[in-house]
Write the structure tokens for this entry.
Amino acid sequence: MRKILLSISLLFAIPTANSAEFNMRPGLWEMTTKSDLLALVPRIPADQMQNLTNFAKQYGLDMPKISNGAATSQVCITQEMSKQKIPTFLNQNQYGCDIKDVVQTGADYKINLICEGAILKGSGVTEGIFTSPESFTGRTEFKGVVQGNPVNERAYTDGRWMGADCGTVQPLRAHR
């Protein structure tokens, strides 16, 4: 179950919206997510950590550096992705979650998440603000059941633009 919860926590770490008036700047971003769940990472057996690494790679991500309850990763945002209200890679979720009710006001965003899959049932909300085209801050809350076990998770994410060149970091892609 920890594998699934951590996977969900990492997935929520990705910024999920922008507005027509306030686009994310394309390029390399550093994103840091903090949660109580991430503090459990040192207790995860090596084979499960390998499975998490493989899960992250399915989305075009390298496993983030995790320490002291925070995950830090680098993400490449393309020009096309920066213009989307909801990046297409978030619409295909192996846990049966759908994004609903996207509300944007200027630089503020709020997205409701409904999960009705076999593994994950519940709902969540992501709220945040783009303080500039080069930075954002937000939080995600999720309450539901994972494989029959109740979960009430909260994560906080900050992102900052690092530069126009993504270097070797590949853009995020949809799960297949």
Q: What stands out?
A: Confidence is low (pLDDT under 50) at residues 15-20, 88-92. The helical segments are 2-12, 46-58, 79-83. The beta strands are 27-35, 65-67, 70-77, 97-105, 108-116, 120-132, 135-146, 149-163. Residues 20 and 83 are 7 Å apart (CA to CA).
